[in-house]
Amino acid sequence: MKLTCDQLEHVLSELLDGESDEALEAAAGSHLATCDACRVVVENTGHLRRASREYGRIRLPDEARDRIRQALTSDE
To answer: Which of 16, 40, 55, 57 is deepest in the core (most CB within 10 A)?
Structure first.
């Protein structure tokens, strides 16, 4: 089994949660051995997940939340 970057992205949570089978883990390992971009994504996602577990939910200031909401709903 070979994984593309898109396929790896779709199974990333499963891999990081330890819910994947050996074949998927082997395919992911092979892909990550040759793909720097995906390796960076996996590392960064792992760091974010660990920080989220360690620090819990962080509440943004109302002003920041409003600016994000406005940017997401903007037609530009």
So the answer is: 16
